[in-house]
Structure formats: C-alpha cells, structure tokens
Queue: 2 jobs
Job 1
Amino acid sequence: MSRFLPVLLLAGVCAAAQAQNPVADPEQQWPVLQERLAAVDAAAGEGDAAALERLQARQAVQALPEVRSRDRAFATGIAELRVATAETALKVAQLRQQSLELDRERDAIVLEASRRDAELARKEAERLRLQALAREEEEALLSADTAAMAEETALAGAALAAKDGELARLEEELAALATANGDVLLSLGGSGKGRYRVAGTAFQAGKASLQPEARQQLSQLGKRLKASGKAWSIEGFSDNLGSEEANLALSRQRAEAVMAVLKAAGVPPGKLSVKAWGSAKPVASNAGKSGRAQNRRVEIIQK
C-alpha cells in the first residue's frame, strides 16, 4: 500500500488542479502546455537552469498524444503539474542567479572600497617614507663632504707613498748601476734543471730597457737555449718599494724584454713564456738596500 501512496498523492494534486482549472477538452490543453513549456525553455536559454524539471515536463507533454482517451485527463493533469513545476523551478533558479549577482556586486563594492582604503594607506606610507628618505639624504650630504675629503686625503697619501717608494727604488738602482761590475747574468745550478738569473742592474734604472752589455750576454745565452731544445719560463720579480700594481707591471715588462732578446737569438717563441710576480717570492729581505737589490731580478727557468 505504501508504494502506491506517492501515486495517489499525485493523483489527488492533479484532481485538485482540475477542479480549480477544469478542462473541457484535453486535446485543447496540449498546445497550451507546449507553448508554456517552450516559453520556459526560451527563458532558460542555453543554461541548465531547472534542467531536470524541464525534462520531466517535456516528457510528460510529449507523452500526451499516446495516452489512451480514458487516461488522457489524468495525464493532462500530470503534464500541467510538471509544466507548472518547471516554471516555478526556473523562477527559483532565476531568483537565485539574481541573488548571486547581487552578492557579487556587493563583494565588488566592498573590494573596491578596501582597495581605495589600501591605496590611500599606501600613499600615506609612501609620503612618510619619502620624508624620512629626504631627512636621511640631508644628513648624508652633511657628512659626505667630510668623508670625501678624508678619502681624497688617504688616496693622495697612498699615491705619495707609492711615488716615494718608486723614487727610492730608482735611487737604489742608480746607485747599484754605478757600482756594477758588468756581470749581470748568473747561472744557478743544483736543481737538476737549467736556471739563470738576470740582475736588476741589467736594466736601466726604473725602466724595462736592457743595458747593452746585458743584451749581449742574453743574446749569447739565447743561442745555448735554442740548442738545448728545452722550454723556458721567464719570470720577473721586484722589491716591495712602491705600489704592488707598479711592481707587477715593471716585473712583467722586464721579463718581456728578456724574452724579446732570446727570441731574437733564435729561441722558438713556443718554447718561451712570461710570468710576473711583483714583490712576491723574494730571495732576500726587503728591509735593506742589499736585499732589495737581490729581489729585483728576472729568472730564466727550464720547464
């Protein structure tokens, strides 16, 4: 009995609907229901609003022509109820959609208000930041001149010290040249490999230009090096007077001057390489003139 209860209730609803809107001829009601259903579909458009209710109404309306005459009035009532349900469901969906749109508009208004508040707060923070930055720049400018003057003084002092060191080395080299005995090339043995040392007096004071007698001795050495067929590293050294940048440059230039003489003597360029050490690797203490004179040298080392 309980399984037939929904059917009985539906039949009761249909009977009540027919009592309120009696239909003289179900055949006349069918086109009306089709028009109402078409209107619902048109209002729903391509969306899925009330899709289930519209499907059920469409199925009920489409089944009417196939219903037996004695059941047609009952089937028409069911179709009427399905169409009315679809209409109501569509209105509910439309109202729900309108509610969602209103909620979105409200959220957009709230978001825009929040954005404007945030923008105002950002501008105020930026104004305060710029004020603080301006104060910092003013304070920095007040001390910048003093710092710049101190830096310039320090740089000038360092440059002066470097120049004094270079002048001191020039004086020492001039004095060494004055007392030189002419023997500027020394063969260093005991390592198992060829090693020669060119004294600092082989060069003009403060320059990379070789003295004539040094050039002659190196030319003779170049002939022996060529005959050996060995490869050689020509390494320049200096004392610690003056700036290290200047020391590196002078030691390299002097090593390159020695290499040029050896090349001219016939040593293949591929057998020669140059390296500059500056004040690194001293062979004597730089505390005295004698030690600094020993450190100003070029060595020719067999690889």
Job 2
Amino acid sequence: MKKIIIIVTPIVIAVFLIVTTGILFSSYNNECYTIKKDGIGKQCIIITNWWDERVYITTPTQNIACDVICEYQKTTEQENLKSESIEFSQGQIKLDDLFLDVQIADNDLKRMRGLMFQEQLPFDKGMLFVFDKPDLYSIWMPNMKFYLDIIWFDNAGNVVHIQKNIMPCQTALEIQTCPIISPNIDSRYILEVTSGFVDKFNITKDSKFSWVLPDTLYVP
C-alpha cells in the first residue's frame, strides 16, 4: 500500500499544478512562457501579466507539469494566430537575375505569423521579413506546411547566410521541439522560399537582392 501511495502522490500533485495553472492562463493574458536550459539544469519560466515565477526542475512531477503548461501555452498562441486575419503588403524584389513577388512581413505581428498555415509557394513567390535595423534574427517553423529555403541578407542586400530544406513543425510534439535557426551574423532582411529554390537558381553568398516594388520603401 505504501508503494502505491508513493506512485500516486506525484501524479495527483502534477494534475493539481496543471489544472490550477491552466485556470490562471485562461483568466489572465500571459506575456511569455518558455522552458530553457542553463548551466544548472532545466528551468521552467512562467510569466503572466501579474505573476512571474521561475522554478528549477528537480523532480519528474515538476517536469510533467511544466511541459504540459508549455504545450497549452503554445497551442493557445498558435490558435489565436490562425484565427487572426493578417494582410501582408505585396512587393517585388530582384535576386540576381530572378524576379520574385513577395509578401512583406514588416512588423512583429506579421513576422510572428510568417508563412504559417499557408500552402506551398511556387518558386517565383516568397515572403520577405523586413527589420528596422541590422541585428541577429532567428527563424523557427511552427505550423508550417512545407519545407523552406531561407536566406538572410545584410542592409545592402548581400547574402550573409543560407539555410536549405528546413523541415516544418506541424504536430504537437514537433512544435514543442521545433529548432530555432539562429545565424551568428547580423542581417536586416530574411527571405523565405520553397525548398529547392536555392539549388535551382544557384543562390550563393555572392548573390544580392534589390527592391523593384515598392522602390521607395525600406531604404538603408
């Protein structure tokens, strides 16, 4: 009987933590939730608009509760993004000798949405992420439906990094473990295109893009 109690108690505690934290998340607007690793171990960070808790994971019970809450948070944010109507500005760029029609993601909401939930693009179309200034910018692939080639450009339109054939993250498990692609070099523009584009059109570190339309916006 004692063995049964030892097994059941952590499960009960985990369920309690999951349910109570779920109530908190449904009642308040949470700003951020993440799980990260540092030099000590796995850290569970829960931040709402009124509550900031940082708990180091030391038991399986805490780990289960933290992972479930994380999945709840990610799912909620993704459903909100999917239901929200976002209109992207349209533009055209020239990459080497190739003309591309691009959707322009030039604010936080558009950049967060990206190509989520969209069908695979033909090779003459893409999405261009535009930032206010050069910096280190990362990309990840939750709720994507197709593989991507991604190209990072500097302020002058020169290629600084290329990543090919990046896998989409669609299932709950894939989204929870979805890798973040983080080039260790400053960029100002990021172009997402269908996988195979880079090889098909021989895009290299010597390639360069320029604006065709709108030709008066996003100047250095």
